[in-house]
Request: fold
Amino acid sequence: MTFGTTESKRLSMSRVLRSAQSYTVGLAVLAVGLVLTLLTNRFLRIDNVLNVLTNASVVAIVGLGMTLAIASGNFDLSVGSTAAFAGCVSMSLVPALGVPLAIVAGLVAGALVGLVNGLIMTELRVPAFITTLGMMSVVRGLALIYTGGRDIYLYGQTEYKVLSGGHLLGIPMPVLLALALAALLSSVLAQTRFGRHILAVGSNLPSARRSGVRTSQVLWGIFAIVGAAAALSGMIISAQVLTANGRLATGLELNAIAVVVVGGTALTGGKASLSGTLLGAVLVAMINNGLNLLNVPIFYQDLTVGLLLLVALALQVERGWNPLTQLRRTQ
Amino acid sequence: MSAPGSAQPLLRLRGLSRRFPGVQALDNVDFDVLPGEVHALVGENGAGKSTLINILAGVLQPSHGTVEMDGHPIVLPTPLAAQNAGISVIFQEFNLLPHLSVAENVFLNREPVRGLRIDWPTLYSRTREVLALLDIDLDPRTPVNNLPVAQQQLVEITKALSFKSRLIVMDEPTAALSEREVERLLGLVRSLANSGAGVLYVSHRLAEVFQVADRISVLRDGHHILTAPTGELTEQQVISAMVGRELVHTQCPERYPGEMVMQVRDLAVPGAASGVSFDLRAGEVLGLAGLMGCGSTEVMQALFGLQPRSAGEVTLQGKALVIDGPRAAIHSGLGFVPNDRKRNGILPDLSVMHNVTIGILDRMRQAAWIDRTQERAVIDGYRGKLSIRYSNPSQRVSGLSGGNQQKVILARALAEDCRVLLLSEPTRGVDVGAKAEIYTMIDRLVEAGMAVLLQSSELPEVLRLANRCIVFAGGRPQGELSGAHLNQAAVMELATGLGAKEVA
Reply:
């Protein structure tokens, strides 16, 4: 007997669709794949598929971090700026530290940005939306100041390219990184105290606090992870062209949020679908790739992602998520 | 009490049924409401009251059966149709726009206009007329969010009246009111009926129902069990009809206080309470009683670190307690069941099991991972101990009934190994059957040596559970009662400030 409230008695079409949303993304991936296979003769070629998966992975890595933020009832608009900042910091340090340490430095820079986001939210009690909107500009500014507005090139240091061009059994490094991150975060979410606390905070913050959850620390952890994930994406993007600058990865935040929402993670918090986020990223990358293969002008890509996001959101709205109450949510 | 006699029914329900997938929410329900009558509708949670209200409000449609007004069948496809048919429903959750004034709310969407502009003087004077009808003293220009809950309710009633509604349906209208405000509301309900309207009064609280209703109807599991004039029924009969069995125990069982567990000296909560001192022993229940706003709620919150305290010392098992937040409180051995389960208790998206274990994950770890076998064992243990009813421990907690959710929160506090259990309104919004179960459970815990501090605005609850009771009024303890001195009259005397200080 689960019909406790009148609310739950109302069975609506969109509810049916929602409960099936994780399948829906999977089905959409198959359907779009089928259509593109029929419409173009290049889609299923190995190099194209790997290309699609690589593009999907760059967004998926940020999206996976973002999934944690959204599961906690927050989101992070500063990830694009963080990606650029970390990319610039990391690449500029390659000559001095060497590639491995430079990559670590980039991850640390991203995590620090995330930690600052978390501290602003818990200590100054600024909602996530406002905090990360502000930090989006602040960090973008820092990246531009740090680089003096110029490009950073890596002459001859092609080792850095391992981030984007490396392979293992024919699978590109970005795909491996995205899969590894998804596996790691899945087990964190499902099997650790921290993961449980993330969902508790997202489900009902006051209740979580009263159950003894250190809610502030949980948020710091989440945003540090989001920052590090953004940094990893930023470094992959930089490695692809062996160039970094302060204008890197603009708009990444919206793409990242879009793949999470398309993947079926509710903006109301309390739930997360990391596999959905991966599939969402693949779906978006496939659509963009298809539009390219079909010679549709590039401007239509933004339009398509936007429409996809709206559809996914419309499926969530009836659950009671309201953008206005979301803004008022404080720590 | 008016004798409606042979008047034609204002509202008649004939064979009203409503099916939801897997549930027959209403099954062939027949009863009527006469003009000038206050007709109470009672039943446990899930009895079908909400479904019936929603049908009358035009929110839900019946699967079978008809609704008749003045002997004519009517259909209510939308809330607007219900309004036009002369039915106003005042839901438990108000439908007021907080930033608008009283007048704007009352005449929302029907504002008197002059040209394109709202005719403010007329709006205010018409609102004043309706308010005067009800003898309510409110400024029509006050924004609704500046008003206390009780007065917001009056605004809802004013609004219902302004439609010249002939049937007024009230869903748990006193849930958020203090006793004095309840008295006032009941008077108002009476005068609404005297003016010729029919009132369908839906409530859990039998004392009020018996005070105000001309007739009482009972629903159970979607069935209409009985309708009878109030004078021909006893509370016990109504309760049995609601739960389908006789309930035992309204008296507190013998308690056997043991060693001293907690001492509170001169606790003060800024703006709420001061001068609070008491001892609490193992195996006893100390009640904190008083009218709403008396400060006892805040005392509970302060003890758990949810409210700052400006003075006072708390010792737990001989150690001075520094409570700077819920986490510290839990660690020193306090368990808390908050009075607002939905807002401050449950984690709605998490499973039943995860709701219980959220505070003790540290204890169930193997390296970084949560030990699921152990977690499962914990929830299985409490399922039996607290008779929590769920089909699967991975089921979302929000799918459980209020009573079972409350047991889950109790299990969470117990899992944290508390020495002192702070219960704040432990059975608010819980149906009669689950209430009895929770009482029995508390008895068992206390027997096993738990020390319980109970804060409740329901006097019968305090009398049923507590062997001692401190009565609050105006933020100060008025006295302590126990044994034969602990009875309804004595508590009310202190709570209303009539009694002498320091009785026992």
In short: The CA atoms of residues 28 and 283 of chain A lie 7 Å apart. The radius of gyration of chain A is 20 Å.
